[in-house]
């Protein structure tokens, strides 16, 4: 646990003692729904602090009349996940108003960018989405099935910085599952197919105060080995067809949705290539993936702010080999053999799942998903909702208050 998170937990605990709310009004701790239970006591020694001033900016400490609640309000709340902020709305009317304000929402959307868990959906059976939280105490969504959307049986296609892109019967929806806010997009001009290769591009920042986002669909031209691009902008609320196109893919068949990072949308293909598209300049490019041995599975992921391709296989028993390729050239940066702690003597297939803003590698094997933190050399596990299958989609999610425009 980092020192920043420790400070947040300590300062938050001081305020929780003042809250007078009925426990019967809140959800059970074991549920994926909102959890409003608070720890009863916290000690500085538990988090490695001598004084609170270790984490508070000097110019803030110099203010004589500053109260701890004001420090938390201005300097801690933007660093908390949406679930925790919803709890703190019960502190006071002042806090309720502040947390509901667009300014705090804007600050939190770019200050909190931690990996919270996965949205899972079986795309073949068309079941409701399920949210898998990696930390029950801090991350969650009130309606993981997305039943607040007007269409039933929606498909989740893409996830980016707390927002989800979904598809109903005929429409696309962008929604924030933490706030239940949603928007229906206008119909595109081109036919995107039954399994559209679409990417949601949303990048909260100091320059993006209006929180505009884009949806980029890469679609094959009819009877031609050409990939075109249609782009939706929330600023204009319109679709436009890019003048750029791609003709250099070995196999122009794209695999479902994609991912977005630092201005570029990425699409995996059925060949050993990745299609990259610079959203701002509308420039396509092709990234060649490293050759993967038969029986191994790889996935694009984000690690410590860099695009990576991670491949893994079960060598024997409970030992797994992980190879991490990085950069546009996809050169091998690290190869590590880890013990996932399983008590067995046979090998089994495994699957790498995408992560975001993390140093971890996620592997699905058997009935569990294992999250291996490379720096700490620590393994966490959660039970998987399914066995491995081609129709199973896991999308990484950030517990954000980001607003839609």
UniProtKB/TrEMBL annotation:
Residues 1-24 form the signal peptide. SUPFAM superfamilies: F-box domain (SSF81383). Transmembrane segments: none annotated. Residues 146-314 form the F-box associated beta-propeller type domain. The keyword Repeat does not apply. InterPro entries: At3g26010-like, F-box-assoc_dom_typ3, F-box-assoc_interact_dom, F-box-like_dom_sf. The keyword NADP does not apply. It holds the Pfam family FBA_3. Keywords: Signal. This is F-box associated beta-propeller type 3 domain-containing protein. It comes from Datura stramonium.
